[in-house]
Amino acid sequence: MPDDTLTQIAAALERIAGRLEAMAPSGESQGPALGIEDAYHWDTAGNRLMPVPKVARVPFGLLKGIDSVRDTLLANTTQFARGFAANNALLWGARGMGKSSLVKAVHAEVAGHVPGRLILIEISREDIETLPRLMRLIAQQEARFIVFCDDLSFDKDETSYKSLKAILDGGLEGRPENALFCATSNRRHMMPRDMIDNERATAINPGEAVEEKVSLSDRFGLWLGFHNCDQPTYLSMIRGYCDAYGLAIDDDTLTARAIEWAQTRGARSGRVAIQFVRNLAGEMGKAI
């Protein structure tokens, strides 16, 4: 075969190899690149961590009415940040009572007081099947990570919860020692009651069918329950926000307006409280 033909073939093969290399996904062995931010969102399609320059969070000191669960999560996270034993945490219960706000506030509080780097990574509920891949990537980093999934729940016929079970407890790899998993859910077992009841009613062995579904929540070592607040707690939340944001209003007027606001919403919660305060601040011509 002529030398020029061999040269052309070699050049063509080199071009093909270059294109294939460019098309291939970046190797997992290198792990995701970390910048200076302390919070990221997991982009499963791009196999990368997207920086979150400013986290939407409530200051730790403004979280009212959840003192017990607040202190428990703070202690657990502090232990983890210092390299000690800690449990994965499930925050479950009433809507709008500060479950996700607590996770973000505790992260900021611990990161600001414990030496070393503590990073918060948010993973979408739709991407939970990729959690094992994310865990393998961050296991190679020197930092410590809180992996956070907000509003985690599963519907009928879903199997993605099995990936989470393997990471939490029971899988061959398990959870990396530098990672902690936190999830929030309105449901204690992350599955609707009618789904669990249906499994029990239609299965050949109802006990085993239900056990397979609800055993996921058992793999969280820390359960923190959030319940609807009473009126004094609701008013205390609002007064705390007003004082923190410099909204001058007398107690009688504030109480009357706050109660009226809650009645129009049909609920009392931390979310309803901050929504009222935003409305009040807007009327006063202030940004919060």
UniProtKB/TrEMBL annotation:
InterPro entries in the record: DUF815, P-loop_NTPase
Species:
Devosia nanyangense
Q: What is this protein called?
A: ATP-binding protein
Task: Show the CDD domains listed in the entry.
Answer: AAA
Q: Which GO terms describe its molecular function?
A: ATP binding
Any Pfam family matching the protein: DUF815
Q: Sorted alphabetically, which keywords does the UniProt record give? A: ATP-binding, Nucleotide-binding
UniProt key word rRNA-binding: no
**Which chain regions cross the lipid bilayer?**
none
